[in-house]
Design brief:
alpha/beta, TIM Barrel, 10-stranded mixed β-sheet, about 40% helix, binds pyridoxal-5'-phosphate, decarboxylase
Length: about 700
């Protein structure tokens, strides 16, 4: 009987195009990785791969000088190393924010519009607002206001808490910056917006529903504030992508033309038509082409001109969001992961469309406002997480001898299946091989259920089928990498709308990735995995986990600075990541960590679901008193200390370090309770570690956290 044992076991790991260009994996270089992961496509000008094989951040984009590159691995080590080792002791996952990148994005957007305004002879200017819903993080919003105040950049709010934060943030902004109030409004929302005007913030109430107008008129009389009003128009132009479902005549938001006319009439009757100054529309995020964009802008500009004709004191056209991001680097308009234009083309299309329509109507050029969120904040933050293990091949590898042994012990009934399989193999009939292998397996499973096949034989059948599949080249060589992350918390758009983000290892890029994997998260949920990647791939090229020196394997998810943080939940009670802010720093330092905040602890996430960690701990302490008598080497106080420490720690895995309980046993003086857990992680129930906060504040001036690049 011919043997199957010498089937080739070669597997195809790399996509063909890369494999062809890199026949010799021995000569793998960082630039091969850059091509493989398409870093130049989605990452330029902020991300690249350096000669050491690490991802490097260019904090000032195109204007970054060579010595200003920041090695992401060094940042991650600084953030995650224990305090004893000179690090900040933060747990994974970690978000690294780069305010310099945020600044550059803002300036590039402004520059693109300035250029379009100038080159088209447009007689007004661009003045954008940042929609805070894209990332309401205090420091992100404060940075936008600070970096944008020189060119009157403002904020957009869509709810009462967002309005409150926009109001307080803009107190530090330019007095001309717009504060755009969108979203559904009640009288409280409207009175807040009117008060903002009283406080000399340049506030515009954008009517999202017709009924809001009565409230605005009422409240403005009551509060004695002259409002500035805009309307959100429902355009006929429709964006057909995923994010466009709010556009078109049947969209969720905005006023129809009939309603807009009624608004004009009513304001006129109240002697308030001069208050009507802004026209807004939003046809959805990720507008795929400038053609569609220009179409929408032209329609809105025509409405704008009509409003001028009807006597409104129009000043601003607000084109909403929709400025897209190229997540896969393909610069194409099919699907929601890419757009075919850049900032310059976007600005040009908008300015030309507005100018064309206004000139045709002899209307003075308006201020152009956009509410670009995704485009401003996506690049500035990177999510770093570890791969902690990968699924090992679980079927036994079969040698010629094993196959022989297996066949000899095979019950009579199954011999014919094996004979058919062997004959097909000899003939090179691959389909036949697969068919007979499957038949053999089915028969063996049946015999196992009947009790006539033992469990070792059953395992061998899997090994044999695997051998056949590999030899024919249809084996699925994709491994599962377990990552210290919750998809539901940190990549909710992948779970919710299958949005893909660029993901790659942030180091070892000078080595050829020998495997392919999907990423499986910590939650006990089958949806908690990432199995779609940019470029339409269903797996990601990855390295063997056991790297040199047992180094951990860090992956980065890029371009996730917009939406992901606020949308995420606490599935399985995994909370948010730790966050560090990192600025480029000249002089002896490569970069400075200007802020470091550990992610929510187990207590924090328990509280979200109304649990009371203090009471829980008391309950457990009573239980300890009842059941633990200090006869062994683990006393009650130590156990209590360990439990307290666990409440204090983040819910994620702490790879390679001891758990709360064993740490407490190692460190504790035994008298700990809720407030006296020793160790590196600070004290339970301190809302913050005083020393650390003081240090972090000082950072801005003295850069004590600066990391000296070797
Ligand atoms: C979400 C939203 C934005 C932001 O859109 P991006 O595409 O992220 O720039 C702007 N305006 C409104 C009204 C929105 O709802």
């Amino acid at each position: 009987m011919p043997s199957l044992a010498n089937f080739s076991e070669t597997m195809t790991i790399l996509p063909d195009d890369v494999a062809n260009n890199t026949n010799n994996v021995v000569n793998w270089t960082p630039s091969h990785s850059s091509t493989l992961y398409k870093v130049d496509g989605w990452g330029a000008p902020y991300f690249a791969v350096n000669d050491n094989g690490n991802v490097t951040v260019k904090p000032h984009g195109d204007r970054t000088m060579v010595h200003q590159d920041i090695d992401l691995l060094k940042v991650v080590k600084k953030a995650s190393d224990s305090k004893a080792d000179g690090g900040l002791g933060l747990g994974f996952p970690i978000i690294v924010r780069f305010p310099d990148v945020l600044k550059d994005r803002l300036e590039c957007l402004q520059t693109a519009f300035n250029y379009a305004v100038k080159s088209n002879g447009f007689n007004s200017h661009y003045q954008g607002v940042y929609p805070v819903k894209c990332n309401q993080d205090r420091f992100v919003v404060e940075d936008v206001v600070k970096f944008g105040s020189g060119f009157r950049f403002g904020l957009e709010a869509g709810s009462k808490p967002e309005l409150l934060l926009a109001m307080s943030s803009l107190c530090k902004g330019s007095s001309e910056s717009l504060l755009i109030c969108n979203g559904f409004k009640d009288s409280e929302y409207i009175s807040l917006a009117l008060i903002a005007r009283k406080l000399k913030l340049n506030t515009v109430i954008v009517l999202e529903q017709e009924e809001e107008l009565d409230l605005v008129i009422d409240m403005s009389v009551k509060l004695g504030v002259r409002p500035v009003v805009g309307v959100r128009a429902k355009l006929r132009t429709k964006h057909s992508g995923h994010f466009g479902s709010t556009s078109g005549e049947k969209g969720k938001f905005g006023l129809t033309t009939t309603q807009i006319i009624r608004v004009v009439k009513k304001l006129d009757q109240c002697g308030m038509l001069d208050c009507f100054q802004l026209l807004h529309f939003h046809i959805g995020s990720q507008i795929p082409t400038t053609g569609l964009l220009a179409d929408g802008v032209r329609e809105a500009s025509q409405i704008y001109c009509e409003l001028v004709r009807l006597g409104a004191d129009m000043k601003v056209i607000d084109i909403g969001g929709g400025l897209g991001i190229d997540y896969d680097g393909s610069k194409s308009s099919n699907g929601d992961v890419s757009v075919e234009y850049g900032l310059e083309e976007y600005a040009m299309a908008v300015v030309q469309a507005v100018k064309f329509v206004c000139d045709r109507n002899n209307v003075k050029h308006p201020v152009i406002c956009s509410e670009s969120g995704r485009a401003i904040v996506s690049h500035h933050s990177v999510l770093i997480f570890e791969a902690v293990s990968s699924s090992k091949y679980t079927v036994p590898a079969m040698s010629a001898f094993d196959v022989q042994h297996f066949v000899e012990r095979l019950p009579e009934d199954a011999h014919s299946d094996y004979a058919n399989l062997s004959q097909s193999a000899v003939k090179g009939d691959y389909e036949g091989c697969l068919l007979y292998a499957e038949q053999l397996k089915e028969r063996c499973v049946g015999m196992f259920k009947d009790g006539s096949l033992d469990i070792e034989q059953l395992a061998s059948v899997d090994g044999l089928c695997d051998l056949v599949a590999k030899a024919i080249g249809v084996a699925n060589p994709v491994s599962t990498y377990h990552v210290n992350l919750s998809v539901f918390t940190s990549v909710p758009d992948f779970w919710g709308i299958q949005q893909v983000f660029p993901i790659l290892p942030i180091h070892r890029l000078d080595e050829c990735p020998a495997k392919r994997g999907i990423l499986s998260d910590l939650t006990c949920d089958s949806d908690g995995k990432i199995d779609k990647f940019i470029g339409g791939e269903s797996s990601l090229p990855l390295h063997e986990l056991e790297g040199a020196n047992g180094m951990k394997y860090y992956l980065g998810m890029f371009l996730g600075g917009a939406y992901e943080e606020a949308l995420g939940g606490v599935h399985n009670l995994f909370g948010g990541p730790s966050v560090v802010r990192v600025s480029q720093s000249d002089g002896p330092f490569g970069f400075a960590v200007t802020r470091a905040v550990p992610g929510p602890s187990c207590s924090d996430v328990l509280r979200v679901m109304q649990h009371e960690p203090e009471i829980m701990f008391e309950t457990l302490k009573h239980r300890i008193e009842e059941y633990v008598h200090d006869e062994g080497n683990i006393g009650g106080a130590m156990i209590a200390g360990g439990i307290a420490q666990s409440f204090h720690n983040m819910p994620y895995l702490t790879v390679g370090s001891s758990c709360g309980l064993t740490a407490a046993i190692g460190n504790n003086n035994g008298s700990c309770g809720m407030t006296a857990v020793n160790g590196n992680n600070g004290y339970y129930y301190c809302s913050s570690d005083e020393d650390f906060v003081a240090g972090a504040d000082a950072v801005c001036e003295d850069e004590p956290w600066s990391y000296v690049c070797a």
